[in-house]
Design goal:
Strand content of chain A: over 45%
Radius of gyration of chain A: 13 Å
Structural class of chain B: mainly beta
Oligomer: heterodimer
Number of helices of chain B: 0
Order of helices and strands of chain A: EEEEEEEEEEE
Strand order of the largest sheet of chain B: 2-10-9-4-5-6
Helix content of chain A: under 10%
Number of strands of chain A: 11
Shape of chain A: globular
Strand content of chain B: over 45%
Largest sheet of chain B: 6 strands, mixed
Order of helices and strands of chain B: EEEEEEEEEE
């Protein structure tokens, strides 16, 4: 059973960047980031397969988002740049193992990112 | 992008009844790459079904998934008040790995 703990809420100004962390208690095959704007549905942002070092981003976030991992601390990161008010959302990290691959079966608690001047 | 359209948007049923939630894809999705999630207010999504019909660990057998091609269904039998939630389908056949807009189930 993998337990994911995300970093705390962030308040950011438009044009700035945010880096959300996600510390995992166990091993995983892939890490995915999904966001949810207030009162809205789920939006897949991108994913990473650490063992291959391959990333896959939704086109609409290309150039603005970077997903990475630090194997030494078993922590994943999502870096989103050039923030705008529409990026205000809860950001979830999620991981999949080989059983449910590619569907993420373990989720973090979510990190609220608010973008406001 | 593959568009997933869920129906109905809202569903209100009584305890003990059965629910049928639909997910229709704008293009064919291999069954291996269709999943369902449950999300309760203030919580992260929880994986219910993957591969269209395989229950994730710990999911009661009241939840079942079926379908192929462009039409998929999540069925929930013997509804309990705790099943009140939003339910989302997701496809993993073509990036971006889109979600449906969700069905709100009220018991």
């Amino acid at each position: 059973q993998v337990h994911l703990v995300q970093s705390g809420a962030e308040l950011k100004k438009p044009g700035s960047s945010v880096k959300v962390s996600c510390k995992a208690s166990g091993d995983y095959h892939t890490v995915t980031w999904v966001r949810q704007a207030p009162g809205q549905g789920l939006e897949w942002m991108g994913g990473l397969i650490p063992v291959f070092g391959t990333t896959n981003y939704a086109q609409r976030f290309q150039g603005r988002v970077t997903i990475s991992t630090d194997e030494s601390t078993n922590t994943a990161y999502m870096d989103l740049r050039s923030l705008r008010s529409e990026d205000t959302a809860i950001y979830f990290c999620a991981t999949s193992g080989t059983e449910t691959y590619p569907f993420p079966g373990h989720w973090g608690q979510g990190t609220l990112v608010t973008v406001s001047s | 992008d593959i568009v997933l359209t869920q129906s109905p948007d809202n569903l209100s049923l009584s305890p003990g009844e059965s629910a049928t939630l639909s997910c229709r894809a704008s293009q064919s999705v291999s069954s291996a790459y269709l999943g369902w999630y449950q999300q309760k207010p203030g919580q992260a999504p929880r994986l219910l079904i993957y591969g269209a019909s395989r229950r994730a660990t710990g999911i009661p057998d009241r939840f079942s998934g079926s379908g192929s091609g462009t039409d998929f269904t999540l069925s929930i039998s013997r509804l309990e008040p705790e099943d009140s939630a939003l339910y989302y389908c997701q496809q993993y056949i073509s990036s971006p790995y889109t979600f449906g807009q969700g069905t709100k189930l009220e018991i």
